[in-house]
Amino acid sequence: MYTLKDTATHTQEIKKSRFLAICGPVGNADEARDFIARHSDPTATHNCWAFRIGQTYRFNDGGEPSGTAGKPILQAIDGQSLDHVAALVVRWFGGTLLGSGGLIRAYGGTAALCLRAAEKTEVIATVSGTVGCAFSDLSLIKARLAGMGVTITGETFTGTGANLGLQIPKHACEAVAAAILDLSRGRAALNLED
């Protein structure tokens, strides 16, 4: 699975109607709705959108005939194995009717071109965890965790050391736990959160 690194846009004209696709990464459904609201154009004829976040997805035809806009946009997202992505396609009507097939191709095609051109990054499933360690082990543990793709999300100091909040790649949990035990000579252990 992949997601977008940043917001991307693509414009095309089809039979005098102008289509603008705006696609971007989102973390949850609320962020997706905010993205869509922020980029929608009230002066446009139609603002059609879709988003996918894991198993959660939504789409909206924005006033176009049912199934001719939102669903093709979602299919463009799914067709490129993207996750945590919102896509909005704005249409300014040019006077020529496109028909159902034309609308499906226009909305899905504009979204697909935008998504295809956007820079992508791999989505890596992570697990949250914590580790408490002594000051003598702290710098070594932090250096090793950084080399294992672990992100330190928080650091609080105690009288004898520190507690670290971690985001660990799911596939590396066992290796990270073993490294922490090894580096601290058994004095520190990884605690995974549910």
Automatic annotation (TrEMBL):
Similarity remark: Belongs to the IMPACT family.
InterPro entries: EFG_III/V, Impact, Impact_N, Impact_N_sf, Ribosomal_Su5_D2-typ_SF, UPF0029_Impact_C, UPF0029_Impact_CS
Protein name (record): Putative YigZ family protein
Gene Ontology CC terms, in alphabetical order: cytoplasm
Annotated ranges, domain UPF0029: 133-187
Impact N-terminal domain ranges (all copies): 15-114
Species lineage: Bacteria, Pseudomonadati, Pseudomonadota, Alphaproteobacteria, Hyphomicrobiales
A Pfam family assignment: DUF1949
One BP term from GO: regulation of translational initiation
Top-rank taxon, per record: Bacteria
MF annotations from Gene Ontology: guanyl ribonucleotide binding; ribonucleoside triphosphate phosphatase activity
